[in-house]
Records
---
Amino acid sequence: MFGVVHALAAVSAVAAAPQVRGAVGPADTLRVAAAVSIAREANPMLRAARLQADAAAERVPQAGALPDPELSFGLMNRMAGSLKSTMDPMTMNQVQLTQEFPWPGKLGFAKQRAQGLARADRLDAEDTELMLVARVKSVYYDLSYMDRALSLMRASRDLLRDFAQVSQTMYAVGSGLQQDVLQAQVGVARMTAEITAMAQERIAMAGRLNALLGREVTVPILALELSPPADSLPGVDSLVALALARRPRLQAARERASAAEAGYRGARRELFPDVMVGMSYGQRPQFDDMASLTVGVRLPLWAGRRQLPMRREMQAMQAMAEAEALDLTNETFALLVEMRADAEKSLNLARLYATSILPQARGSVDAALAAYRVGRVDYLSLVENQMTVNRYDTESVRLIAAYHKAVADIAALVGTEIGGAP
């Protein structure tokens, strides 16, 4: 009988012990700010986006440059029967330089289009960085949640093991039911399976975070930080104004629309002929040297198959770029409303859990423990109450992580950090 009393005391101590909180865990090894900094320096996708922007910038001077001149040399008007003879007045050694000059405005609009596309690629690289930061934070907070959920699940398993020990002891002395023993063993096994599954998910998630940071996927990542949520978020109108002013992808869409307009205006000038100017110098061995100047134009004889389709193509591309910019703006606004609603929902529920649900659930455990001591509640009811507290604790941590993930997504959409973003 002493063994039963000792086992009962163990269960009471475990049930009455403070529960694992969301902010409790091993020392942080990688803070979110450090993870973001590493990703900005080492992520290969971001590096590729920046290099693409660099390549686009190099196209700008190409678009505004004149075509290369053509330099040619020739032996002119040699007699077929005697190539060395220079007695004919038309025989000469000639050097010729030809330069093509596009119609005024063609090069200017081509350069303007290239500049707009280059600015768009640079802005896209900035937006890629913002999206990368949001992705890093999302995976980081998933890991933070898993760390704390695993701690809570292990505490729950320890409680179930203590209950199983008590059930076995009471069954051995004839004061317990075999059903309680079996239920306790099943509960321990089920919790062990859940812990195993989440532990493997954490390994996969840690590998994903390492990949985002440009590191080997096997680099160890220990417990991560999870800061408390902020008090409030900016209103939808403020977020929309921020996105319009600062989101790089919206600015890039506007730059592409402007570049498409320049391309259309340049295409309208394709019907105007380019001018070719040539200068030549002829050295005649037996006579005075000669010089020539030629001016020519390209004739748009096939305008119906070349210049006019080009104009219609650029007009369609301009309309397409404007439509894409409008669609991206609408999608950004819709996502802002959605993400802010998700953040507010997670924040309000987390507060509800902290101020109402969890205190009541813990009070229920205290009441069940008191009733158990006088024999009015069985073991299973006591443990079920404690497991309910653990589930609420886990959900509270998940809500805090979901809030931080939504805030990170909002920051990426508006192009800057906002209140509540760590």
Note: The two ends are 55 Å apart (CA to CA).
---
Amino acid sequence: MTEYGPIEPATRGEYHRFTRYGFAAEEGPLGGDAETDFSSPLFDLRGVYDGGLRAGCKRYAFEAYVRDDTRTVGGLGALATPPEYRGQGYARTLCRAVCREYSAEGVGLVALWPFSTPFYRGLGWATAHDRYRFDLTPELLPAHEPGGQYRRLDADDWEQLGAVAALSRDGVTLSMRRSEAWWRERTLTSWTGGAEPFVYGYERDGDLAGYLVYTVDDSDDSSERTLSVSAFAHVDREANRSLLAFLRRHGAQIDRVVLERPTTSRLLDLVENPDTVTCERAPGPMARLTGFDPLETLDWSGLDRPLTVAVTDPLCAATDGVFAVSGDGIERRDDTDPDLTTDIGTLTQLYLGRYDPTTAEAVAGLDVRTDAARSTLADVFPERPVYLGAFF
């Protein structure tokens, strides 16, 4: 009989071994005395048992800006199944149970960084936003004479860093409001292994106006020394240019700078020779609604009658079917001729603001059948900036 629940201490070593196999097989198997301490305020462990542990994951909860408010968002990480049990539905069972648990706790949105976009798309997740990855030599970064000074920072400066991060991502959906534990255990440390990061801030008149978190390594095949930026935030354009100038100063020390930025970035407009910059656009994290509670908080006052929506959800029966949306809430209906059809992933993208309805009709899974419905959706779901810069 398949059961879902916490991964108890007795089976944490097994979970550690098959996550090692799933995400770092090149490092070889773990020994029997491998560290199995998963204690952290950032996550708890959940697993599916069927005569033994068959799949497991880390279940996070963090605060993020979503649709003009700060809300709790769930995070799904380190989901793994041993190879001998793959293809038997254990991962799907785990994802379904995790979503149900989040929904029961009032967490209406779950984000993850996919190991396979098609796999999670098949479970109802959809890409939340795209991102740019820049790779360039430091001398290409713009020269700038800073009006302030640079200062080395550490984990004890997390509150100042958090204030800058909040200003830097003001109004950006999914921008994380990191807790002290998240700053100390994730952003400002090497939680995945490797070198500890450097943290530098940019100050003006004693106030922090920006910061960088980065590592330097020469472990790639090209033997080039690469400075990789893992966190970058600034309160205004001058602070942005000053941080880029700080990276430029490393020209005699490193060969390349690698950093990820939102697709709103204007870095190509600032560099001296954009033709020699590698800029890749790639999908970012994925997200999905766990239920319709988040949609019930939206303003549906423009409706003169209930809007009927047919939703397909391959994972959760509670959000699969035809539903009537009105100012009084969302309830299941038996209508066979709905005003619009959508899959749960596209509905999530509309909720986040990745797409407006017109774009969702063109490139995603939205089909609107009446002009009145199209007008209502345009009012409720405008496009918004979306960016989750934290990995888990």
Note: The chain has a mean pLDDT of 94.
---
Amino acid sequence: MTRRILGERAIIDFIKKRFPQRGNILSPYDDAWACVLKNKYLISSGDMFVEVTDAPSFMNIRQMAFKSFTISVSDIASKGVPPTYYYLIIGLPRGFGKRELRELVEGWRDALRLYGGAIVGGDTNETSCITISVIVVSLSDKPPIARKGGKPGDIVAVTGFFGETYIGFKMMKNPDKIPKKIRKRVLEKICRPLARLREGIALNGVAEACTDSSDGLATSLYNLIRGCKNGILVEKLPLSEEVEEALSVIGASPLEAVFYGGEEFELVAVIPERKWNRAVEEVESIGGNLIPIGRIVEKKGVWYREGDRVTRVLERGWEHLT
């Protein structure tokens, strides 16, 4: 008798079917929970940082602490609301010293200075490696942006270019071989990734749907249409010239790098065409970028057009336990 191996998504679906969400104004496909609380919206989301799976060998403890907040804030950023409170649950290996603890605290302080909000509680336990779970709670005057939505003709856009983290992870064992032109930027994006919080807040009111791209662009695009009858046609790869040159140097595919890199922490949004100019103005007013990459279409699935050829983008991306 063979034992079936379950991946992260199968486990999540298994749990959700047995514990239906109550009072959630968002879709069960969303990665956040929200309700109306008197005259405010209460939105919560969380994520976990595990040293052995989320930290390359060249990442220091302060950077780990900062990233543990980024991965959770990125989810709340895609809802278009600011973090108000954090609940911090940490696991540390035996022998963890005071100097290392100071590094953790400094990393968390860096994150709070950038993202705002306050730590209000948590728990500490013993684990085999540094493990940090951050639960984010937002009390917002505005309703959250849903993860799915939009209709055919709506524009699909991202808040930044892709491919840099793909290069970094591909060259992780030999970071000195990353093309010098982009090496510093690549390493910063891996060791100190930034959540697009300001962009998410700017998109609240103009975006029909939004998600973050931490598991890869392909997965994010499928998340936007999960439970819908529509699809997405990508017509432009969000790829900078410098990254395209670097991919050529290391012999990597631009399509692979853009769709399946992961950990970019950019936002992927669906915006009605009539609101596009306003969306661009709102995002640029806070110093951000909004790059159109395609549109919502009636044909279900995610597709990529290159010239006259249209091919299906496979739903692949980072998934724990697989």
Note: The first strand starts at residue 33 and ends at 37.
